[in-house]
Input
Amino acid sequence: MSGTATAAAHPARYPGAPAGQPTVDTWQEAPHNRWSFAHLGELLPTAAVTRRFPAAPEAATNRLDALIPRVPNLLERLEATYTDAFLVLRHNQVLAEYYRQGFAPDDRHLVMSVSKSLCSLVVGALVASGDIDPAAHVTTYVPELRGTVYDGAPTNRVTVQHVLDMTIHIDYSEDYVDPASEVQTHDRSADWRIRRAEDPGNTYEFLTTLRGNGTLGTFQYCSANTDVLAWIVERTSGLRYSEALSKHLWSKLDADRDATITVDSTGFGFANGGVSCTARDLARVGQIMLDGGIGPGGRVVSEEWIRSIFAGGSTDAMAGSSFSRIHPQGSYTRQWWCTGNERGNVTGIGIHGQYLWLDPQADAVMVQLSTWPEPDSGFFHGLQNRLLLDVGDALDASSTQAPIHSKEHIA
Amino acid sequence: MSGTATAAAHPARYPGAPAGQPTVDTWQEAPHNRWSFAHLGELLPTAAVTRRFPAAPEAATNRLDALIPRVPNLLERLEATYTDAFLVLRHNQVLAEYYRQGFAPDDRHLVMSVSKSLCSLVVGALVASGDIDPAAHVTTYVPELRGTVYDGAPTNRVTVQHVLDMTIHIDYSEDYVDPASEVQTHDRSADWRIRRAEDPGNTYEFLTTLRGNGTLGTFQYCSANTDVLAWIVERTSGLRYSEALSKHLWSKLDADRDATITVDSTGFGFANGGVSCTARDLARVGQIMLDGGIGPGGRVVSEEWIRSIFAGGSTDAMAGSSFSRIHPQGSYTRQWWCTGNERGNVTGIGIHGQYLWLDPQADAVMVQLSTWPEPDSGFFHGLQNRLLLDVGDALDASSTQAPIHSKEHIA
Output
């Protein structure tokens, strides 16, 4: 049986909202308007009317003194990689920070597929609470996916763990610049591009169209997997994905600002790539990873969830991937990239150059939010990996380095 | 000559952006992406991932003790008028505050046509700087409006003052619930409703379609007028309207939060009704009105601009309007409603029940942010006017009343 997503099966935008409501054509009407007048950005594009003018400093914010003597050409390398924000947190204190001209420290930046690594922590939280079993079949939680690649019946049943580790063969091209690719259909279904008449009406419906050859166990990077995880999160938490991300992660950070997530026509958050947040708040997520899963607001995931990520996934599953060319012992597990290098670096990575880079050896978190001209460039990945490794080396050589502003204990 | 708006003539979303760029189909591409990755909410709907969970208190915020003994049935009257937020600022201090269950004090609420009264202050600022002359013809600033109702050549030339006071006959039905009305075409052009094939592509283009019979001097409430003012603001400031609203007003408030404004496909802010902000920040705007045009961040408009508003406009122009039925000496000038009553109340009013009510006699600002089931209800207007008048009377009777939290000097 081929599953069909129906709006009725999804968490409501407000308690009691009828299925699929409100829409761009109904938000002004009662009873929807009592919700929509307070959440208009979920329905319509909105510009900030900033409380400061100009909104962002006209000069770059450059507090790199702690690193410049030890990292060759640091500023030039940040500029060459189209860096909008860069932050190094060491021993849970800000050691260095940079924001390009026109981008303010409290501005949110799209983090693209680093969003996947955030989803990992939401899933991990629901695993810890017993609501999600990684060994369970996907279709146990989302029967709408029966008959799709996420079913696999009767032979190779697909589990949540397969989705977390992206070890499913899916007829899905992640070629971002090919209009015929599935990733562009995925974008259009989520209103990230203008929808065509023949496209699925929303992300849930898109996910039910996916097929594969039944092979499991080989890594295939596929953004759809994360949206399936978000669907499982909604089913097991009873919350919208945006709410679950708040409840299980963002509210535990002592965050400076709300994050945002793009939503499709049904209000489903684009878990695979739609989160925007500040560099400092993203660094706080990294600190939770270093701290064994505990944040200022309490435990997020089990220590075991964190340990499994730092231990890395299957290098065999990963063989031949572009990540392996940079990191020969590299792997992907639970929505995180594991370098397998001597430093034990683990990272979230977004297209066009966002990194949430963890350096357990140096007790450091590095956030680099770039916007490259190309989505997935070996050249730029190479430059940024080299930079982040050099910063780690510099930290090793300066273990007594004082933070630049010790009062700003950000987490 | 009938004017035609071209995107080239409008302020760019970022310095050097090609006309009309970026769009929902191009925002991921260079060079647009460097701007759009930091401003994604301007292009796509986004949900907040709140730093607190739940996002808003599960109980109402009720700090009405200073008023309850003096205003009969206050709480019941707030609930009966679908009030989401209510705030009384007296002598520039918070005297009373209420937020319904599920709506937080730092949540933004759509203020609909109170947005018009905010636009008044931006225009006033540009009048004070000499950039806008209220006596000048509209087409001096916006030649694209030649041949439209905003031209009036060769006989009854339309001036900026006519637009400010809404004394232009326009073939425009402001019947919010009639799909054939011009206000709904206006909405669709601005992406407030789903656009139809025959609709103008954006707000600028919609404005160039408007025609009238050439009569000037009689009040006709028409939301298009405010968008014409915003177009004049863009032309004379060189800024996008959202930026001008920040530069000339929001950055002068010492605001707690950024406001937001909905934007159309070109990024043009919906000046007539698209602003969302917190109750406290809106109260700060009211305080500037009471303070003769000066805010914590400096002068916004001339004292004369404020004085003209409190003096009121033409009651003759207003004769027979629904506002006159509630306020017999009522008038409308410079995008504010003037009651002409003994208290000298002046107010901004949004459909579905938002009020920014000024009470110079009591040195008080009252903000009521409601979401009625109907857009424009004489019944609900009557209830809210009565309530705000009663609060004013209660303040007169309690001139020594201490504020409930004197440290929260909000402006």
About this structure: The radius of gyration of chain B is 21 Å. The first helix of chain B runs from residue 33 to 36. Chain B is about 30% helix and 15% strand. The mean pLDDT of chain B is 94.
